[in-house]
Design brief:
- This protein is 86% helix and 0% strand.
- With 320 residues, it is mainly α.
- The longest helix has 86 residues.
- The chain is rod-shaped, with a radius of gyration of 57 Å.
- The two termini are 28 Å apart.
- The model has no long low-confidence stretch (mean pLDDT 76).
């Protein structure tokens, strides 16, 4: 009947709202992943910024140190040539180039420059190169991590059902829909309880109807018996006239009267039970009517709450 239709409708509504909650749960999880991933991207971007800054600063120092090394190297080898040139004599072959003409001999460009000084500066330059390469390697690794995380964010966004709503708004919608689900559960429970109670009352009424039929049949039999005894009494009274066995007949009459009295008392008792059954049926029908009125009122209140909730959700931009 109508209660079953309402119950089916409530369960359909419940399924729809549970699907909404499931999607919101998924969106909340995805958005939380996006937020945590974006925080990690910002941290890595800050880290890679520091690496690039340190690398550029080191490159600048490296360029200066390279110029210093080249100058020192030039002076060192010039001084070595100057030492050899100092010993050259006219017409002798140069031990470096083999020329016998010494038009322009090498000159000293500085004092106190040793191979140890040159090697030390060369080692410093080499360390700088290694450190620069390390910075570049770190930069590449961080760049790859950032790219991978950005790709993850794009994939998360594709899976989102509602990309415009923030996590806190989704959580509010989640709470509202859970409340709506709770209201629908209450409707289902009330409908099931009402249907169960209605069935119980109908069974009781059917039972009372059967008892009523049984009592009516018993009453009819009693009425037949009473009519039968009344007829017998009339016949006995007629037979008394002029009969010598008057005392015996009188005894029979009194006996019949007692039986008749018993039958009448039984009839009155049956009538009373019949009236009690009628009263019980009226009470149960009144109770059933009260339950139906209460259910109708509950449905109306829940429908009003549902409309208020839907309006709130619609104001937030969440489609039903």
């Amino acid at each position: 009947g109508k209660d079953i239709d309402n119950l089916i409708d409530y369960k359909d509504q419940l399924k729809v709202e549970e699907n909404k909650v499931s999607q919101i749960d998924k969106d909340i999880k995805i958005k939380s992943n996006i937020e945590s991933t974006e925080k990690e991207i910002k941290r890595l971007e800050k880290e890679i910024g520091t690496v690039i800054k340190d690398k550029n600063q080191l490159k600048k120092e490296y360029e200066e140190k390279s110029v210093e090394y080249d100058n020192l190297k030039d002076k060192y080898f010039s001084n070595m040539g100057a030492v050899l040139a100092k010993e050259l004599k006219a017409g002798e072959a140069c031990p470096v180039c083999g020329s016998k003409d010494h038009v322009k001999k090498a000159e000293f460009k500085g004092k106190g420059i040793s191979k140890k000084d040159l090697d030390k500066l060369d080692e410093e330059v080499s360390k700088m190169i290694k450190k620069i390469n390390k910075f570049e390697s770190e930069e590449a690794v961080l760049s790859q991590k950032i790219k991978s995380l950005m790709d993850n964010v794009e994939e998360y966004i594709k899976d989102l059902n509602n990309n415009e709503t923030h996590v806190e708004d989704l959580k509010k919608q989640h709470k509202d829909i859970n409340q709506k689900i709770s209201d629908i559960d209450q409707k289902i429970k009330a409908s099931e309880e009402s249907r169960k109670r209605r069935k119980e009352l109908e069974e009781i009424i059917d039972k009372l109807e059967n008892q009523k039929k049984e009592k009516s049949a018993q009453l009819k039999l009693l009425e037949i018996d009473i009519t039968k005894y009344e007829t017998q009494m009339e016949e006995l009274n007629k037979s008394l006239k002029g009969d010598e066995k008057y005392e015996e007949l009188l005894y029979l009459i009194e006996n019949q009267k007692e039986k008749l009295k018993e039958k009448q008392e039984k009839k009155e008792e049956t009538n009373k039970k019949f009236d009690d059954l009628k009263g019980e049926r009226i009470r149960l029908e009144t109770q059933l009517k009260g339950i139906e009125e209460s259910l109708k009122k509950t449905k109306k209140e829940l429908t009003e709450k549902e409309n208020i909730l839907l309006n709130k959700i619609n104001e937030k931009g969440f489609e039903k």
